[in-house]
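Allow me, if you will, to draw on your knowledge of protein folds for a short while. I have a record of one protein: its chain in single-letter code and its fold written as discrete structure tokens. Kindly check, if you would, that the fold set down in the tokens agrees with what the sequence suggests. Thank you for your consideration; the sequence and its tokens are set out here:
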Amino acid sequence: MKYDLVLLHAPSVYDFRKNALLAGPISDVVPSSPVFEMYPIGLTSIAEYLERFGLRVKIINIANRMLLDEKFDVEKKLKKIKTKAFGIDLHWLPHAHGSIELAKIVKQLHPETPIVFGGLSATYYHEELIQNPFIDFVLRGDSTEKLMLQLMNHIKNGIHQLGGIPNLTWKDGGRPVYNPLSHVPDSLDEFDIPGYRYTVRSVFKYKNFLDPLPYKGWLQYPNTAILTAKGCTQACLICGGSKQSYKDNCNRKVLAKRSPKKLVEDIQFIQRFSRAPIFILHDIRQAGKSYVDEFFERLSKIKLKNELVFELFQYANEEYFEKIAKAVPRYSVELTLESHDEGLRRFNGKFNCTNDKMIKTLQYALKHNASKIDIFFMVGIPGQNCESTLKNVDFCEQIHLACNQDPRLSYFVAPLAPFLDPASPAFENPDKYGYKKFCNTIEDHREAITQPSWKYMLSFETDKMTRDDIVNSTYESARNLNAFKLKYGLVDKKTHDEVNEKIAKSLEYVEEIDRIMALSPEEKEMELARLRKEMDEVNRYSICGKNELKWEVKKNYANFFSLAAVGLELLFEEIYNNAKHSFNSYNRWIASRTKTSRT
């Protein structure tokens, strides 16, 4: 089968199946594994947009295919592909190794086929990436659907004058060219983000349901998400997606919103095939009160079958939860509180309110029937020391008692790892915010992510915590939090003991790897190979129970007839759109011929 564009998602470290790696807790609080196999939602919106114009676009989650099958042959899979171009995402920096290694393999197999990079990290490091002989183009910015269509039209038609494509970094006779970063749309309604219609249709169209799977375990627990906006109104120091970061990296000065009408349409489509929770990405209050009111008004008029999960960035009053409860039959809340310390939160920009107001927020949510509230604390934020990290668990107990020991509250701790976000204020001004950076270039990060322990992956220390402090404080906080959860019946004894055992084993491996790192290269390789299979056991949910982050779902999918109807409907829709596109192209050709003959 021939394609116009094949979009590939790489594992964080390409050869993860061979090399020993103590990833520790760096992915414990996200859906994917330490391989970071979940691809960014932008791949689906690009694919959906291009297919509207008659192009054939295929997504292959290489990372997930490698995870699902130890014998999966990447080169054999890629060698068979016939396409006009490959696209590889470098959105999150932990993919710095895998994405470039995958580009190298693709270029060896298909030397004449152009390779396009994109994503927030690719945008930040575009000048370094374009020097790579395996990378032909970098599309910068946070919204590249239209730009990819323009570039694909150039590639298909053999036109090489690329100066008119905004945001494009390319090579002119080997010399890098940086077109102005001027394409910054202020609305997302034109795009399908995420492109679930594309994803479902592609399974039927390309007869392969494994290639586009978002992450390992998705079939058993098919979480979905909808994107409310690109950009941010918050000024968090450690976030590469903060207001200042988006301005500096993507030239985004205003929030780009997806309208409430489109959000509700997305929800209605998702619940035609899934019954799992739907995450509403970002705090919808960023867009203003009228936006929030319209969203809930529209939600109240549909028959909502899925649980919705709302994010909070700041304090929320009781009125907000009253609106949610009125419009949403079942909902949950997620918030990254980061620290018990009001001063640190104010300094970092997240939940810069008093602890009393924070507790009030949780009480309001519980009062108005939130089914689950996940609260996350972090280790490694600006101004934090070891003592402060341990006090987070004391604050968990304070919250729990103030909320009448409500079992709907869940508590988590995680390190700021493995990397400090490029474009974040802390990355750009480390001395000002108390950081010492070990990684600056893309090559630095590529080297770091391949280290055998997450301690050596860390791209930073702070003026108050060394790498050892961050590692030890993370595990000690997790152990104390685990004891707190057992005390209040938030986990059972079996889960508590399993987590404690993994923490103890992880600390042993940290020490063992420290010893191995001092050996000769040959001895080091032998010793790490010995540890590899053992370490696999503690690389997933090493500091919390494997089911703690999951929502109770009685049914994952809609019925078979609904799924079949969705697939057929989308296929017929594509046939219609392709016919329409061909008809319009024919009319333009006739018009141009007529104009030429008259001339």
